[in-house]
Design brief:
Number of strands: 9
Number of helices: 10
Oligomer: single chain
Distance between the termini: 79 Å
Structural class: alpha+beta
Strand content: 25-35%
Radius of gyration: 26 Å
Length: 331
């Protein structure tokens, strides 16, 4: 975890962000709110963050490089046992997901309709997924081995919680070193928790604040999301869902890897939204390119011209081989 002295007191967002639309349509708005939306945080276990750090931790524990599997196996079992124990304590069963088209969010939404939204564990999924894992190469009898990072696959546990401060969240824990944890939360869900605690009446429309008895106070609460609080909550979740963290002195370093910041605009006349949406959609078509969409989805876009040239090269090579093979011998 980042030392407390280096953690900022607050997450500052420039005031001009999102104000253009609000000022342009100020006379038509019923309310306006700027708030964090989807946030994905990754935790890196500092003591095993890279192969060099892993070797230092292994040596301190009395293990040689070639003993990586023997070193990691007890921690893997500890994570699995923790998931089973959590499920039993909350009267749940771990659901193993094997279908690629399975949507965890839909399953959790169905559970919440019956369970309610009181704080606690909602559900646990077990999914085998790809991950960056540690492995060894060139192991020798004297204990030497080269530790590498490679793309592999291991079981991951997704635990969904109703957090008292963050609302609906999930914690994703892999079962192999380096145990890179992922935590998801939504700023609107967190704000709803704060409004409940402040006894302020509000109404949500899907993932937006449609009505609020005290809009000014709601904006103030949305702006009061403190990194130190997030660090404390994330560390507690890591200790619960990934017990091996307790044996590493430096714990997790938390980094926000995906952050969405939204502005909720509630118009007095719903009909005005249709015209605004058409304008925004038209502007998006002109501004947002295929490269931007591919980058957002984590994909690499291959230019059609490059693909066409590549196909021409393949055809040329094939035709050249045919000409050589079918030519008559020289006199």
């Amino acid at each position: 975890m980042t030392p407390p002295s280096t953690v900022p007191e607050s997450i500052s967002i420039p005031e001009e962000v999102g104000l253009e639309l609000a000022s342009r349509y100020a006379d038509q708005l019923l309310s306006s709110l700027r708030c964090f939306d989807r946030v994905i945080v990754h935790g890196t276990l500092v003591d095993v963050a890279h192969p060099g750090a892993l070797l230092v931790s292994m040596k301190a524990a009395g293990f040689r490089p070639r003993d990586l599997a023997r070193y990691a196996q007890p921690m893997r079992q500890e994570i699995q046992d923790a998931a089973v124990t959590l499920a039993r304590e909350h009267g749940l069963e771990i659901e193993k997901v094997t279908r690629k088209d399975f949507r965890q969010e839909d399953r959790v939404a169905a559970i919440l309709k019956q369970r309610g939204t009181h704080p606690g564990l909602v559900h646990i999924f077990a999914v085998k997924e790809t991950a960056q894992v540690y492995d060894t190469r060139n192991a020798r009898p004297d204990g030497y081995a080269r530790v590498i990072t490679r793309r592999g696959a291991c079981m991951h546990y997704y635990s969904y919680w109703i957090h008292s401060e963050l609302g609906l969240i999930h914690v994703r824990v892999p079962t192999w070193l380096p145990f890179r944890v992922q935590i998801y939360f939504n700023g609107h869900s967190s704000l709803a928790c704060q409004l409940d605690a402040a006894d302020i009446n509000y109404a949500m429309a899907d993932n937006a604040l449609a009505q609020c008895a005290d809009g000014g106070r709601a904006q103030q609460l949305a702006d009061e999301l403190k990194p130190k609080d997030l660090h404390g909550w994330f560390d507690e979740l890591a200790r619960t869902c990934c017990p091996p963290v307790k044996q590493f002195a430096q714990g997790y370093h938390w980094c926000m890897t995906q952050v969405e910041y939204s502005q909720d605009l509630v118009f007095k006349d719903p009909g005005k939204v249709d015209g605004l949406f058409e304008e925004l959609a038209r502007q998006a078509l002109l501004v947002v390119k295929a490269d931007d969409v591919a980058r957002f989805l984590g994909k690499r876009l291959v230019c059609l011209a490059q693909l066409f040239l590549l196909r021409l090269q393949v055809k040329f090579k094939k035709s050249s081989r045919l000409d050589v093979a079918g030519s008559a011998p020289a006199d």
